[in-house]
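Sequence in, structure out. Go.
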Amino acid sequence: MRKGTPHEPAAAQQAPNPPASNIARSALHVALRRAAHQLYDRPLVFHDPFAVPLLGSEHAHALRRTPLPGAGSRARPWSLALRAFAVARSVYAEQQLATACASGLRQYCILGAGLDTFAWRNPHPGLHVWEMDQLPMQQWKQQLAAAAGLPEPHRVSVPANLADPALAATLTAAGWQPHLPTLFSMLGVAPYLEAAALQQVLHLVRAQGAGSGIVLDYRLPRAALDLEEQQQHDSLAARVAAAAEPFQQGWTPVTMAALLQGFSRVEDLDTATLNARFFANRADGLATRGAAVRLVSAWV
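Output:
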């Protein structure tokens, strides 16, 4: 066992390989970051007891390759920063959800759900959960859960593409009630959406009326970054483009604010704010890095 590793995935049934879908590969990378946080980072910022078991023994080798915090992370600082951002956006979204549930919200839609585990961890009585993603992604997630021996969670899986103009009708057909307040989370998705698809999602949220909201993250345009981050952006953009899942466009805080017109309350967080809120006074150095990514919540 690797030094500093509290535990590793238990060997159950062999985990299914991801489908050919490039979206599934992207979802796997995000899930590996969340799982690595459970294994290597102390204290935990985001407690997710299902993150490691869901991946199964098939992906244990990938978890062993992830950088440890502290001195061992210096060779791959951006990899550790990506992990920190994945952790920060997950805990932030669920904090927003908890606050809304305390005020009576009972609908939560996870757009581009990937391998999100909230449905297994849902602590809010009466909260209905919908997970929207492409069908091959959902089928793979179900196979992973079955191989890991996880129970079927209380959720509704909605196969759909976020660019589909019938998004609201698809959700409604799955039991979602559009007249009731809803929180939508869309994490790690906006950079891959064309502008029209993002505008459609935001219009859907605005149309729900008071008490509804969305949590999303976005990337700045390359031109808004310094030289070091432009190089990091180019490296990451080349990898996602090679997987046929290219970045579509970036937004500055000003252009994002324009997209969010019509929302009554908006919080747009940069990495410095995220570090102060979630990673302050850590001995291991786990933190976000640079200025390329931001996290937003917007409420009607």
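Check: The beta strands are 107-111, 128-133, 156-159, 183-186, 213-219, 265-269, 293-299. The first helix runs from residue 22 to 40.
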